[in-house]
Amino acid sequence: LTWDRETSTNVRSLVKSWIGMELEGAIAAEAAGLVETARRLVSDFPPAQVPQGALLGAWFDAGLTWVHFPEGLGGRGCSRQCQPIVDDVMLEAGGTLTRQVGTIGYGIAAPTLVAFGSRELTDRLLRPLAAGEETWCQLFSEPGAGSDLANVSASATLADGKWTVNGQKVWSSRAHEARWGVLLARTDPSLPKHQGLTYFVIDMHQPGVEIRPLRQMTGRAEFNEVFLTEAMVPDAQRLGAVGEGWRVARTTLLNERMAIGSRKSSAGAPSAMADALRLWSDRPERRTPVLRDRLAALWIRAQAHRLTCERFSAAAALGQEAVIAKLVSAELRQAAYEFSMDLLGPEASTYGTYDMAGSNQDGTELQEKFLRSRANTIEGGSSEIIRNIIGERILGLPAEHQPDRGKPWREGHRG
Ligand SMILES: Cc1cc2nc3c(=O)[nH]c(=O)nc-3n(C[C@H](O)[C@H](O)[C@H](O)COP(=O)(O)OP(=O)(O)OC[C@H]3O[C@@H](n4cnc5c(N)ncnc54)[C@H](O)[C@@H]3O)c2cc1C
Predict the structure, then answer these.
(1) What is the pTM for the complete model shown?
(2) Which residue minimizes the CA distance to atom 13 of ligand 1?
(3) Cα torsion for 299, 301, 307, 311, to the nearest 10°?
(4) pLDDT digit string, tens, across residues 76-129
(5) Lower CB density within 10 Å: C or N end of the chain?
């Protein structure tokens, strides 16, 4: 009952403490310096008065966009743990962060570019990405390559310093808005499937790229099919060596899982928990002891997720925590919205803005968030696949049987 009363009266502070973070020692000192720079910047570039791109560009130049990146590339070589503190300065000043403007560019493309791109390419692409001037999409999945991503069949062939790409991608989020895409393509079908892949940055604004929207059950068309027909990619836009695409893609996937699973992600568990707590506070007449038990159980799971996220933000390199956080975050988010629907009761079945012409902005209604949350256990690797990864790479269980292992891709090609 005490817990219940606290939840009712202190929802705001609970949500704040949930999102807040404690830092210690050297990292706290590092964060203090960054916060000072951030405060100066929002005072020199007041978010309400200057164009968003000008502030985000200055933020990049000051090394605040990805504080753990090297200097000159939007970072300062600081601990990843400082990022949420710096971000809060921007948000409190009423500004918008790069990760809110372009999640894929921020969380997926940028870390891969920094790890594998030439300095020339990174210099050309990173600042416009950070300033929100150029958005990105991810061209990995295909009709025959989702969970089995290494089965990609889109082909790329090299002639005169340029690659020609043909094939079909699917579920490409925000491709209709993107200026650039990260692309995984097969460059040697005679090699085993993981070895014949190469990774590219492709210009989405060219005649060989056709984008067709796909509508989700929320009514919105957030992702697309992308048809590549004789699309061109200069060799200078290759990330990593020819045939090393799988290694580069793994960096992307790890960062994607961290971006999705992180506590600050808008698609993450904390915002769903905050929604559930607000609803609990707003609708005392709908509370039951069973729902109270469920909310308490969700809260405990959410605390475990928070601690896992703190472990990965403290780690020098991303690792197993990012995979675990993605799994827990996706399932917790679904459970939190299921809870909210049960608390709403019959009202859950009324969905005011369901129109098939819906925009591409994230929904604000709980009912829509509930529908969208069904995708959380699919995007960025399904929960079944994440459990396989945890079983094999973390727990050391025997690997799944792979009948096509070591065979040339073209022999086992499932189309
Ligand atoms: C909202 C959303 C956004 C997305 N955005 C992008 C994007 O921007 N770019 C992009 O490239 N992709 C994107 N995806 C695609 C996503 O990565 C794939 O949907 C996902 O990897 C699953 O692949 P699939 O849909 O082909 O399902 P399949 O691979 O066909 O899987 C079907 C079912 O079988 C299960 N399964 C498959 N293999 C195994 C196995 N070995 N063991 C146990 N179970 C298994 C899966 O878990 C799943 O339940 C997006 C997906 C969603 C839902």
Answers:
(1) 0.90
(2) 171
(3) -150
(4) 999 888 888 899 999 999 999 999 999 899 999 999 999 999 999 999 999 999
(5) N
